[in-house]
Task: structure prediction
Amino acid sequence: MMRTLPFTLMALLAVLVALLIGTHLNNVGGLNHAFASLFQTNWQSSRSVELSLTWWPRLFTTLLCGAALAVAGVLLQQVLRNPIASPSTLGIASGASFSLMLATLYAPWLMAFSQSLVALTGGLITMGLVFLLSWRRALSPTVVVIAGLVLNLYFSAFSTVLLMLNQEKLSGLMIWGAGSLVQTGWGNVTYLWPRILAAVLVALLFLKPLSLLELTESGAKSLGVSLTKLRFVCLGLAVLLTSWVVASVGVIGFIGLAAPAITRLMGIRRLLPKVIVSMILGALLLTLTDLLIQRLPDTVAMVVQTGAATAALGAPLMLWLLPKLAIRHQTQAETVLTRHNQQIHHLSKSAIVWTGGTLLVGFCLFASLSIQNHGWQWLVFNGDWSLLEWRIPRLVAALLAGIMLAVAGTIIQRLSGNPMASPEVIGISSGIAIGLIITLYSGLASGLVGLYIGGLVGALVVMGLIVLLNHKSGFQPERVLLTGVAITALMNAVQSLILAGGDPRSYAFLAWLSGSTYYVKSQTLLPLAIATLLLVSIGFLLSKWLDVLPLGQATARSLGMNVSRSRLLLLLLAACLTVAATLVVGPLSFVGLMAPHLARLFGFSRARDHLIASSLVGGLLMLLSDWLGRQLLYPQEVPAGMVASILGGLYLMWGLRRL
Amino acid sequence: MKRTFSYLLLLSITFTTHFAVAQEREMKVAAIDWTQVETLLALGVHPIGAAQIADYNAWVKSPAIPSRTVDLGLRTQPNLERLVELKPERIFISPMFQSLTPQLSRIAPVTNIALYKKGDVSWQAFKTYTQTLAKDTHREAAAKSLIQSAQATLATLSKQVPTHTPPLLMMQFMDARHVRVFGTNSLYGIAAQQLGLQSAWHRQTNKWGFSLVGIDKLLGVKGQIVVIEPLPAGVEANLRRDAFWQYLVKQTGHPMLKIPPVWSFGAIPSTVRFARLLTTAIHQESK
Result:
């Protein structure tokens, strides 16, 4: 059974691919003719030109890219010992995309020189930064993943700002971001194959030491493997593979995550067959998707690009596979951020007073001081107090949303013992976004109330999915996170499809997505305040659970807790907090990730203190971000969520460096 | 004597026109959508505020926004506090920015005027759109003369177009391998139609009149390729190297035409501008 399953699956995929290729070639004038076009272009026949300059190169590019991404995925997951690691988790794709945007806007001559070089440089610099941030911890898997995640968020935030400010100029890049495999010659194939081949060969050389990483860290060390060097080489190879693909055809989601995951599911444990099977699976999966997409009718094909489609198709597959995925328990104590800070700080009264005071002074200052039509103005001097009517609701909303996201983030991070976790990561925010997209594009509603309802339905569906897929495993943290990753991948896919279609409606969507307090009115504040008060107090009531759960299931059970029920309740609470906050400030505000981290870097680690500290930090961060966002590029507004992730990201990187 | 007379005449003309403008008190309007801005300007209304002025100047180009018009920031999120300070009497938006209505209507009455709708973009729709905007700003007379002069210009231009001009394949490059091809329901299509020309793109287009396709899909389409600038960075060099693109242009039987940037989603002013640029380009090519 274990032996035949992989072969059956691969054979099935191969037959499907061959069938699609065969019917296409037969339709365009016979197999003989088609294969002749592979080797020689007959310039007299437009059919032959089409086959030999677009169709064949596309097929080979797809096969190569799929294989390369799968190998990159296997390497990353092996080195980082993390089933969620994939080329996109580490920020390589977003770094490449960011560098392309910068070049398009500020150095167009670079784009004319070599687009793939720009993307490659961006990907490599991102990985360099990840290495730099995690170097002192010998490239420890957790630190590498966090550093990658932070950079990912950082670049995505910056890219979204650039995109909002220059949507017309960057619309071409959106197609690239959705991964279109259209080819007009053999350039990409000749660029890719020697490089990919070389990288795979080097990777095969390192298979033996890599498989030792399956053992524990100390085990590998005692066998005389230089961990740092090994990680450096393998991560480097994965980055190169990804960057080459990203640079030549664009961002292709999910293959790097799905192919290794399926391979693992098929029960393949040894590394060599894992690499080979993943490679074949990746190539076949991508090619199958691409061949199917080429058969779509015109109107649909216009908005569906392959890279985003693989992500959209792969996400449900991932959700389906999840219950079957055996995840090794990461020991909860391995979480870096608890490890470096063993002594417990108690939150002193004066610290609370200080932070609260800062919050109050900041609020008054931000409400009264701002750029206006004629430069900087302070309301105390010009007496134009009527403007407060516009400013106060936004500041209050930012503050409340910040607090709620911070509490939600603290709960999820403590619950999962995973420093990557946050409301954004478990997929609730993405669910809201998908709901919103459907409402906006199906024409069900375009008013604000309609959008809110759409978002809420999306959030509830995702929460239902999380519960449905995880109740059997007792809401095991890694599994919940994986669910979130799959849902987020789906959202990203839908989002890049929409942006690539060039539909001018994507403006409104992007504006909301970037997390702005723009739409807040005084009437929305009361329900928001009630929700905050209610949900945050529940959070504090349950803080004892948050102290016990990170100690591990056994300890919690021995203390008489019903582990899965308390996990479910906490999860539900975090979800409600996120929905309330996200409906106001959008799904991308990353405060839920940043605030708990920052609170920890201050040194608070007991759950109650952690909650207080992170909600104060979260509130302050959002308050400052909202105000800054309105001043930075006046009269253009940078959404608060974007400013928050740019500010918080800087601090987090500084903190990582100190770890 | 003669000189004094002409001087007097000139003076009286300036005086009366000045008087006329003063009498028809200018309404303080703000416009978010660029199509509305271009139409308002063509009607002689100077908005006190418009969104993303620098980008308007790069993509719409003409009619130019006067320097006293204040920049409102992004079209998706025009700066509310700045709008409050400007105290407009009316704010124009299009359905694309409908989600702004609750906020903007706290500042001034909001008028939502739609232009680009599926299967409904035509010269007639452009005229109705202009008239609607004119009515809301009390510029009916200006609208009438704008439409008349536009139609007269288009008629003159259509006579200058050589009769044997092939159908046009009008496109804008997104990157080196993808284009927006404009067909029915598009501004470029309408301009061509008014000149008595045909579009070579018969596949279905979206609400805004274009299909987004890879250039491999253009193979076999017979027609004159018209590329509307700007070309994204690096695309031009790429196309020169691309054997497939060279073949594509060759098989149409006509050299590629390049047209300076014209706003793809505009109304009458952009249509006339495109028609003029297109006629010039065709003329130069046929010479």
Observations:
- DSSP finds eleven helices and ten strands in chain B.
- Strands of chain B lie at 29-31, 49-50, 70-71, 90-93, 110-112, 168-175, 178-182, 210-214, 224-228, 257-259.
- Chain B touches chain A through 62 residues (CB under 8 Å).
